[in-house]
Amino acid sequence: MSAKTLLELPEEFELYRPLIEETMKPVVLIDADAGKTTLFQSKFAGDPYFPIAMEYPKNASGQPLKLLAQVNFAELPKYLPNFPEEGILQFYIDGYDDVLGMDFDNGKNQEGFRVIFHDTVIHDEAQLIQDFSFVEKEDEEMYFPVEREMTLSFKTDFEPLSIDDYKANEIYSNIITTVEDNETLEDAFYDALTGDGHKIGGYPFFTQEDPRAYGDYTDSTILLLQIDSVGDDILWGDCGVGNFFITEEELKNKDFSNVLYNWDCH
Questions:
Q1: How far is residue 80's CA from residue 77's CA, in Å, rounded to a whole number?
Q2: pLDDT, tens digit, for every residue of 108-142?
Q3: 10-44: b or e for each residue (b if 16 or more CB lie within 10 Å)?
Q4: Beta bridge partners of 71
């Protein structure tokens, strides 16, 4: 049985199954649990893998950024097209900024956040930073969305175009017209195609709107990482979500200098 026959849809949408399944694409779903990690492991928060010889990322005023997430591709299933098969990808944000390093006018401006890819991993820990206490400011509270260091586990799946994706209005236009006067049906449709949760690849979830619907971001079609407000330890503002996007060409070239960063909340 193919993954495509496993898509659970409310009965009323069976008519649209071919249309919805046409949009299916691979996703790696992430489970996060509070726990200690090594410098090399995939994680949310905690201490990053970081060579002493490299310059640590800072914001415009020189304050060090904090690790939001680290993905070691050696631990990730070889499942998503164009993603690296090894190396460590990291996402840093400004924990002392009330908008967490996001630039509303230019989501690709990496002054307040940084995406760093370590193509080659050094295994000699003597060459790595061990003490990250310099990231924390004394007597100042962070706004950080991930409250504890978390270990990650990964699971492969397929998922359909989410209702929040900017392409959904066009692709699902007939369904949207059908359900808009029936609240129960509309809720069922939105629940079936929500796109929420932690993931790499697949389709995004937003509490507001997709920033790629306008501006210069329409090419950033690949969801590099999504971290959702799930469980007791992760909270973006008022139950929001954070996501990072990249173009297919940039991903193929392992060029993470133009990643689009967005987070929103209710």
A1: 8
A2: 999 999 999 999 999 999 999 999 999 998 888 88
A3: eeebeeeeeebbebbebbbbbebeeeebebbbbbb
A4: 89
